[in-house]
């Protein structure tokens, strides 16, 4: 076996790592790559033999935990039987048909069909094409603009990266793409005016959305995309009444609603889908991450009856639906998804996320809410965040140069906990596997507390 020093050298010499400061990595300023060698339950190990609680389930995806042999076996079985066939021109496999039937049965809205990709980004790229396709087919060729929210995260390909509402994902990359617009973020803590209730704030955000649609011309606005709980932009549950207000505006102007369930789907919030929890009735749904718990790359675009009906009705006139990837509906990924969904159902992971999640939210609030450098503790189910501020009374932020969020995340890591420094602001994010126990939650919260205390003392 190649020794780990050689692996690290090979990596540094040849991998272009996502979201990495290239010079820091190339020169060794940020140290050697962490070589992850194994995982079991909620923990991973690295090549030095260190073990960490993975408080972020990889990238909010390993919901069933690491090392689930049932899924490994399902993958192997399918690989031995038939490693690949495509799904173009009415070809299918057993696993693909079974998975699709399950998704159509369980998904929110009025699901009709599922289209498959490999990542959340490509799925949202497909969503944009569907909004354009649908409106072309029904004779509304100008109704093409798509609105997303500031601080929303929908991926980083050309259109999905444009939907993402954080400028550092656009800078130097010529995004956003024309026709993708942004409206205000649903974050009450930062967005509300003095004394404004959550309900009033939600109404204001909906009124702003309406003004944007009217300014652009409703005949030019085709879609709206949002995560039920804003994820990478800060792990922010919606303020009270938000989705009801937003949906009323979308209906008024005949704008399709795309629910990006990439993080929320399959139990993360304590409900099967974020849509279920917040009463969202989407026209289109994006799923990925929890669909396979990261055991294989797979995403899905769940097309509702309204959109699908228009597509099928136009088919005799326009011919085939000309969109798809070599690996759309890959049978090994579909087998992995079926095995993962078996676990999600058998172990009732949504319910578990609700119950253990309530304990988690309580612990986070109890340990952190009163700390001097904490502005807000928030979350739902097994999604949580702590936002750090220099002055909790005036909500003054820390100087970004102090890198407070990153330092706390690093101090946690040094103690054996992975909790993510979220990219926007000083926020420590949590999204542990849904199989996490209450004892592991306590351990996680305690390590995060010690890490925060350490950095708070350094700042004093
Ligand atoms: N949508 C949401 C809500 C996400 O959180 C992410 C990734 O974190 C994506 C889309 C993009 O998914 P991927 O990284 O698989 O392209």
Automatic annotation (TrEMBL):
<dbReference type="InterPro" id="IPR005814">
    <property type="entry name" value="Aminotrans_3"/>
</dbReference>
<dbReference type="InterPro" id="IPR015424">
    <property type="entry name" value="PyrdxlP-dep_Trfase"/>
</dbReference>
<dbReference type="InterPro" id="IPR015422">
    <property type="entry name" value="PyrdxlP-dep_Trfase_small"/>
</dbReference>
<dbReference type="InterPro" id="IPR049704">
    <property type="entry name" value="Aminotrans_3_PPA_site"/>
</dbReference>
<dbReference type="Pfam" id="PF00202">
    <property type="entry name" value="Aminotran_3"/>
</dbReference>
<dbReference type="InterPro" id="IPR015421">
    <property type="entry name" value="PyrdxlP-dep_Trfase_major"/>
</dbReference>
<keyword id="KW-0663">Pyridoxal phosphate</keyword>
<keyword id="KW-0032">Aminotransferase</keyword>
<dbReference type="GO" id="GO:0008483">
    <property type="term" value="F:transaminase activity"/>
</dbReference>
<dbReference type="GO" id="GO:0030170">
    <property type="term" value="F:pyridoxal phosphate binding"/>
</dbReference>
<keyword id="KW-0808">Transferase</keyword>
<comment type="similarity">
    <text>Belongs to the class-III pyridoxal-phosphate-dependent aminotransferase family.</text>
</comment>
<protein>
    <submittedName>
        <fullName>L-2,4-diaminobutyrate transaminase</fullName>
    </submittedName>
</protein>
